[in-house]
Amino acid sequence: MKKGLKTTNSSISRRRFLVSGTLAALGYLSGSAGVLLTGCGNRQSAETFVAKVQRYEDDISSAILGGLRELRITEREIGGKRIFLKPNLVEPHKKAAHINTHPLVINGAIEAFRKLGASTIIVGEGPGHVRDIHLVLENSGIGDVLSHNRVAFRDLNNDEWYSVPNAARATTMKSLIFPACLKQVDWIVSMPKLKTHHWEGVTLSMKNLFGVMPGIFYGWPKNVLHWEGIPESIIDITATLRPDFAIADGVVGMEGDGPIMGKPKHAGVIVMGRNLTAVDGTCARIMGIDPRKVGYLRIAGKHLGPIRESEILQRGETVASVRTPFELVDSIPALRSLK
Amino acid sequence: MHGAIKDVLKRSLPCGGFAECPGSVYRPDSTAWAVLALSASGHADVHRIDSARDRLLGGRNKDGRVVLSEESPRTIWPTALAALAWANSAAHFQPFKAAVNFILEHSGALLSKPDPSTGAVDRSIRGWPWIENTFSWVEPTCFSLLALKAAGYDEHPRAREAIRFLLDRQLPRGGWNYGNTVLYGNELYAHADVTGIALTAISGSVERPKVDKSIVYLKKEVQTLRTPLSTAWSIIGLASWEEGPSQSEDWIAESLSLQKKYGPYGTSTLSLLAMAFSAKRNPFSFRAKGGLV
């Protein structure tokens, strides 16, 4: 384990947080949004995999494992690694399962990473609207999946913490505070739900990272990030945390007034990839949305990875074959602007 | 319930404060909750309670705020909890007074004009934020209001405004969530824990008809709840309105048994369950020794 950045109350470092490594990857440009990260994200790795999964009762583990192999993620890379899965569990309600990443998708990811030899799997979330983390686990059904698989859960709102310099500075935040458990893993996997979002247009693997920001420092909801600007905060968090992978649950997503009050939308897909910008661009396209019209993707497309279809190597199903336009409500400006 | 208190005591640290989890570091909020629970349960070791109150002084700034971490001075939300922990100790009257003054002098960010995109809430009413220089939200406003009441400031203009804030954030169908009501024409979901907190904070300050829908919502919701934070706050909130459920002790026992599935609860959660166990009425209805009014 290499030594990392300045820590607040945790001495264990995650190897990816090397100051030198991070800063060496940076090129800066001045702009109204501050200093933006360039060159972060490996454009050569900007390929995504789309699997057709019609129902949650299908063999999701095999679908995810197939996608990982198509993306050349094998036992050699995953064997012995500690994998952190970050689903979207923003506000669970028993009668509105389409708000959150489905427990059977999380179950499928656990099984797939175990088949590739992962040594440890941890699931964690810091819900933005709800502080009763046990209610989140009970109502979403995740608690039973974790018990069944004997997988630990971390409440990211209440973990110990460490701070690191903000690698992108799209916001005014000089540093970002993350839960300490993220330094104790080797791979971070964002597991969003395909949803429309009434402020940002869509919420996918990058916006899902709001859930890693501890509520004890950013509030419930994560209002500090809203004040700093949602698209800019998304860029800063992604560029600083640099997650390794995304697995997006698009079996049933949400359309209309997302991310909470929208309607279920069957899209029948799971979308995967190493580059979160490319994954989100592909998800948007599947939802019938031009990613260039989404504020944070416009910025990310210049600095963190590709969003143009021509720059993303598409594996598995073609976007055209699974494209399922999500309803964009005219009365919500952020959704109307996507049309 | 002795088991919960015992587990809380196991998180006490050599510095006098408490950690949120076994083997973890000092947290001011965990320490304040431990003080409140130990006091409410009649714990005999007064010295230990006072040591915890003393430890809270360490995170205090000159302006009276108590922050989560010295490196993050904007994390002001523990201030109200610390004030409540100090309120019953004559030896901590000065920090209590300073914390209450800080609360009186601060508020969340305001918008003078209603923002149609944010729906129904009135952002010109002052409450309190989690983090300095952000909007006011229901929970920090509730705890700040409880701290003002502990100081005897029930009728202070800021206390009356906080009550107005909370009534404004009450959902049309009853209950509260983190602090939004209707967005783009859709009424948002209520959350039991926040509803319990809000009912506790405004009990004794408004007539029952103004919160009747919320009480009805919570009485129904609590029947199916067993997770600790929601269960405890539902019981405390209903007890504050003399509607404490007769099955409370069984529900709390069931809630504690969920630790077999999820592992040990945090200090704050255990403390709250201990307070709910003995809550026959509002457990925050105490007044500071010496009083500010």
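Chain A touches chain B at residues 8-9, 91, 93, 96, 129-135, 137-138, 143, 147, 153, 158, 160-161, 163, 177, 198, 215-221, 223-224, 226-227, 257, 260-261, 329, 331-333 (CB under 8 Å).
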